[in-house]
Structure formats: structure tokens, C-alpha cells
Write a structure and sequence with these properties.
The chain is of the alpha+beta class and 287 residues long. It is built from eight helices and twelve strands. The strands form two sheets. A six-stranded mixed sheet has the order 3-4-2-1-12-11.
């Protein structure tokens, strides 16, 4: 899992190797073997580019309804700057906050949080295993997704001019948890997704997995697609966001099924957390 997380960066290795081989090809007198190797590396480089290209290509899945906006953020043990979180959420209709401590959620209230989001879902407990969902629109049929390391919720949001959207706010344990928890909790998520594919479905949060990991490939086989892919939003790594270097791994996602489309997806930085957040504009897909 740890090795697979860095598969996309293999492209950099191919490009360096290709550049070195081209230099050798120009300077050597015995070119046949070097030429064959250079062609092979060039083909591998093109394959790797083709693997990543869908991230940058808009699927042109037309919207058939009004749009709604979803924001997702890992608050890193509640450490995210509450004022900046509230500012970012001013344009959102639905907000998912994982690793949200009770004090962090309380700190949002002075910024008009409850007025903006009159409907909420969560079971705040001491510690940082909480996941909270806030919405401008009513929530119903809400329940926890199994007994997992971090809270994971499923609910139904009634979005005006769009209809009922089944929403899952997720945060499976990461590969470092040990004891097979990463696989087990993703399996619970897969089962929940399978049970809700007969309706518009959004699954968003910190998946602790990149697109090349098995659990994400399973979700794709079930019928989910990354909103990033659908919108052609490009490469959006979100972790780690608290280092001197840029984030390397896209482990936060907004996934949708065929009944929905994405018109835009962007990432944003919040001080105090080790994740970048995601902001997605979604709509019902035109039939």
C-alpha cells in the first residue's frame, strides 16, 4: 500500500531516464542497443502519461439539474483554524469534517455556523475519531457505517431542484493501523456503497487511499468515479499539507455515481491541519 501510493511519481523517473538515454544516444557510436532501450522507455513514459491523462480530461457529463456545493476537510485532531474553516464553508451547501473534536466544532459556532448549516449529523465524543456532517438542507435516514476506527456516516440530503442525494461521509483507517483494519474498514465501505447504488450517491472524505490502491479500484468497479476525473480537475494531492514541500498524495476524494456529475473540483489549504480540503460543485447528470 505504501509503495503503490507513489506510483504516479514513476513518471518523473521515466522522464529522467529518457533524458539521460537521449544524451547517450547522441554521443555514442554504438547506437542500436541504446536506441532500443530509449524507444522502450519512451513507450513506457507514454503509457504512464495515458494512465494519468484522465485526471485532466473533462468527461463532458452534462448537468441536468441545479448545482450544489460540497466541502470536505480532515481537521487533524481538531487543529484546523476554525475561522478559516468557516470562511471556506461560506459558499458550501454541505460540509464534511473528519477528525473533528468537540471543542473544534464548538469553535465554529461564533462564525454563524449554525445559521448557515441548520442541519447536522454526528456524535461528538472526546478525542478525534468524530466525523460531522453539516447541511443547509434536511438530513434523514442517517446511520453509522459499521463500528470503525473513525466515525463514518450515511445519510440522505434533500437538495432543492436536484432531489434526494445519498451521502456518505467516510474516513477508513490508514494502512499503518495494522491488524488488517485498513482492508476491513474499506470492505465495510464497499458493502455500504453496494447497498446504495440505486440512487444518486456521493461518497466523500479522507479515504486514506490513492486511486491506484485496491480499495479505490473496487469502488470504481462498483460504479463510482472521482469527481476530479469527471470534471477534469487535474492532479489534486491533499496530504501531507503541513510540510515545507507541497502535498504528495491524493488521499481525500469526492466520489460520485453515474446519476451525478461534477462541474468543478478544487483543493484549498487551511492552517492547523495536515490535509488540504476539497470543494466540489456537483449536479444531477443529464439523462
Amino acid at each position: 500500500a505504501r509503495l503503490a501510493a507513489f506510483i504516479p511519481y514513476g513518471l518523473l523517473g521515466y522522464l529522467v531516464a529518457l533524458g539521460c538515454l537521449l544524451i547517450v544516444l547522441v554521443r555514442t557510436q554504438h547506437r542500436l542497443v541504446i536506441a532500443v532501450i530509449t524507444i522502450a522507455v519512451a513507450l513506457l513514459t507514454l503509457c504512464h502519461l495515458a494512465w494519468l491523462a484522465p485526471l485532466f480530461a473533462n468527461d463532458h457529463r452534462a448537468a441536468g439539474t441545479a448545482t450544489f456545493r460540497l466541502m470536505s476537510l480532515n481537521m487533524y485532531n481538531g487543529g484546523a483554524d476554525s475561522q478559516k474553516v468557516a470562511q471556506r464553508a461560506e459558499r458550501a451547501d454541505i460540509v464534511i469534517l473528519v477528525e473533528a473534536t468537540p471543542s473544534a466544532l464548538q469553535d465554529l459556532k461564533p462564525f454563524g455556523w449554525d445559521e448557515r448549516f441548520p442541519y447536522s449529523l454526528g456524535d461528538p465524543k472526546d478525542g478525534f475519531t468524530n466525523t460531522a456532517v453539516y447541511s443547509r438542507f434536511p438530513l434523514r435516514q442517517s446511520k453509522l457505517i459499521g463500528n470503525t476506527s473513525f466515525q463514518q456516516w450515511e445519510t440522505t440530503v434533500r437538495v432543492p431542484d436536484v432531489g434526494s442525494i445519498r451521502l456518505m461521509a467516510v474516513h477508513p483507517c490508514n494502512p499503518y493501523c495494522g491488524g488488517g483494519l485498513w482492508s476491513e474498514e474499506h470492505q465495510l465501505l464497499n458493502e455500504a456503497v453496494s447497498d446504495n447504488l440505486d440512487q444518486p450517491l456521493v461518497v466523500a472524505g479522507d479515504f486514506n487511499a490513492v486511486d491506484d490502491h485496491g480499495p479505490m479500484q473496487t469502488l470504481r468497479r462498483l460504479g463510482l468515479e472521482s469527481a476530479t476525473d469527471v470534471a477534469g480537475a487535474g492532479w489534486l494531492p491533499t496530504y501531507p499539507a503541513d510540510k515545507p514541500f507541497p502535498p504528495l498524495l491524493p488521499i481525500d476524494h469526492v466520489m460520485i455515481n453515474k446519476e451525478l456529475t461534477a462541474t468543478s473540483v478544487t483543493s484549498f489549504a487551511i492552517t492547523g491541519t495536515d490535509h488540504r480540503g476539497l470543494f466540489a460543485t456537483l449536479a444531477g447528470a443529464k439523462s
